[in-house]
Amino acid sequence: MFAIPFLDLPPLTKASGQIRLPGSKSISNRVLLLAGLAEGSTLVHDLLDSDDTRVMIEALRNLGCDLAHEGGALRITGIGGRLSVQQASLFLGNAGTAMRPLAAALAVLAATQGGQFELSGVARMHERPIGDLVDALRQLGCDIQYLGNDGYPPLRLAGQPQGQLATGAPVRVRGDVSSQFLTALLLALPLASSGQGEAPGTDIVIEVDGELISKPYVEITLNLLARFGITVQRDGWQRFTVPAGSRYRSPGAVHVEGDASSASYFVALGAIAAVDAPVLIEGVGSASIQGDVRFVEAAVAMGADVRMEANRIEVRRGAWPLRAITLDCNHIPDAAMTLAVMALYADGPTRLTNIASWRVKETDRIAAMAIELRKVGAQVEEGADFIEVRPPQAWQPAAIHTYDDHRMAMCLSLAAFNGVPVRILDPQCVGKTFPDYFEALFQLAHTHHDLVPVITIDGPTASGKGTLASTLAASLGYHFLDSGSLYRVAALASLRQGVADTDGPGIAALISKLRLRFDGPRLFLDGEEVSDQLRREDVGSRASKISALGDVRAALYALQVSFRRPPGLVADGRDMGTVIFPDAALKVFLTASPATRAERRHKQLISKGISSNIDDLRADLEARDARDRTRAIAPLQPAEDALLLDNSAQTVDESVAQVLGWWEQRTPFGI
Ligand SMILES: Nc1ncnc2c1ncn2[C@@H]1O[C@H](COP(=O)(O)OP(=O)(O)O)[C@@H](O)[C@H]1O
Ligand SMILES: Nc1ccn([C@H]2C[C@H](O)[C@@H](COP(=O)(O)OP(=O)(O)O)O2)c(=O)n1
């Protein structure tokens, strides 16, 4: 996950490849709750690992459920409908799929078995309405208090042992604000219909007021209830009967399918950019129980070329530009946001209607989408329950606010396919449902080599290049190339193989056969980690010698260039700005006085438990500098357009801040 303040996406051009989707959020959180309430234990496979499922898991643990990892799956032993913990304060983040059903289930359990529970979340959760659900539960006799504003969490749920619920009359609930209220009741009421002790229990009827929105989500609920042994009788979409004597029974094992809403970004990616080869989406398809899979129909209407199998979707670009559409999106409320971004690439205005529920999600999504799409140049009209998007006439680079809303971040990343870069602010908000979304995007999306931004840091040994470059890379979410480590690995390999340090062709031949693997800062040679051995002074010294050989430099060229991949690269070495990346967007030449550098290296070696003599180190580094500066090929020297930075008197943080400041001046984003 990119846990950084912003992530800059370079202009992207094409996409292809295969993606395995993370588990569905809606299914994961329903299954977690059902397994937590059921008798017996349930082994849940392919569960989504994200912010929203973590808060649900934590809540279940606090309620006395036993949860244990088994391989990649999670085993949940449920409470069997009997409270084992009578008092708890549960923090539910911004997860509507946790807040609403847990509120209903705990209200019913507290009212019949006694107990006191407090449910709270982040500030935005406390602005998301829950009044319609509370009203419905109060009809049954549940004792629910608002701890903040009326109609919104936080809530306190209370009750006495052997309490009775008024289940005789139908429970009425509004269905036109959020279908999660109905889902919450459907998940909770089997706890009340089962009867107490010898009592037989009663049928409980739920009647929906108003037109039920987002029906497919209710279908997921009914489907999963059936898996846990409860067959709800449905009359149209207005009346649901939970049968007397219902009891949750674990089905033993459940496989969570891939998230259909998350699939929408990759379906759109294929429609926009799968020009040469398809985007293959694994984990969801025509056999899905998730309503958002019908997003595919809308994407096809806009021109996507799609082949669907039971558990797999293959997408290519079809019509281009995409075709503008007008669509009632009630059946795909979450995935429809992706259409608003596809609309940027359409041949006319796209109008998405019946989306009032967008306004009460993680943020007011209609307002947020309108503001952010305008930033890239689109003309947008919004109303209470619709949005209309006209494609930009002139695209503009934009810094996109994400409003702590994962879908805003994922959607707007798709705006980077028309020649302009896009900055995504607060990219880790995708952690709500798809922590590795951007990694997946970069795996599939390509761009022209020269559109990937590069920052080069060149300079003499121990000037702090590696420290500066790796910190910059981490701050920007860019890849990092320590080019010296490639010379060092060539030095180590040639040392091991007994190839002379003057034998350019011999070492070049060796380089072409090296089996290297990079894992963050760790480097593996033929499967063996050699990171520490590369730092040996004899290896560094040999690296300096062999780096003067033209054959060696040529042999390492392609490998270095291959590090230039989206979203960007920070490369450190001697000739990054002069030879390898002469078109780098920012070149820094880093120096520090020989005395400072010798002292730094000395401290660095001591901290690693390696003893050394500071005078020898200084003599050694001055000899290395002289050799690196005076060699005939790619000598160490600042590029003409490099900015010089002497960090002798700077801390690491100061150098990093200085270079980030320079970088910011060269990016086109105004916040
Ligand atoms: N600006 C700085 N101020 C103080 N020490 C620094 C600074 N930059 C780097 N160092 C320290 O100097 C040592 C050498 O830095 P390193 O990044 O390995 O240099 P290089 O890659 O240029 O050989 C490290 O221990 C590092 O923490
Ligand atoms: N781009 C590069 C990087 C390193 N080299 C050579 C020159 C250096 O003395 C050696 C070792 O580089 P490295 O950056 O690891 O060395 P220091 O950490 O600065 O001591 O490799 C090079 O010629 N060109």
UniProtKB/TrEMBL annotation:
Its EC number is 2.5.1.19, 2.7.4.25. ATP binds at G459, P460, T461, A462, S463, G464, K465, G466, T467. Phosphoenolpyruvate binds at K25, G96, R128, Q180, R365, R407, K432. Keywords: Amino-acid biosynthesis, Aromatic amino acid biosynthesis, ATP-binding, Cytoplasm, Kinase, Nucleotide-binding, Transferase. One of its GO terms (molecular function) is 3-phosphoshikimate 1-carboxyvinyltransferase activity. 3-phosphoshikimate binds at K25, S26, R30, S178, S179, Q180, S214, D334, K361. Its main location: cytoplasm. It catalyses: 3-phosphoshikimate + phosphoenolpyruvate = 5-O-(1-carboxyvinyl)-3-phosphoshikimate + phosphate; CMP + ATP = CDP + ADP; dCMP + ATP = dCDP + ADP. The active site is at D334 (proton acceptor). Transmembrane segments: none annotated. Residues 14-441 form the Enolpyruvate transferase domain. The keyword Heme does not apply. It is found in: Cytoplasm. InterPro entries: Cytidylate_kin, Cytidylate_kinase_dom, Enolpyruvate_Tfrase_dom, Enolpyruvate_Tfrase_sf, EPSP_synthase, EPSP_synthase_CS, P-loop_NTPase, RNA3'P_cycl/enolpyr_Trfase_a/b. NCBIfam families: aroA, cmk, PRK11860.1. Belongs to the EPSP synthase family. Monomer. Catalyzes the transfer of the enolpyruvyl moiety of phosphoenolpyruvate (PEP) to the 5-hydroxyl of shikimate-3-phosphate (S3P) to produce enolpyruvyl shikimate-3-phosphate and inorganic phosphate. This is Multifunctional fusion protein. It comes from Aquincola tertiaricarbonis.
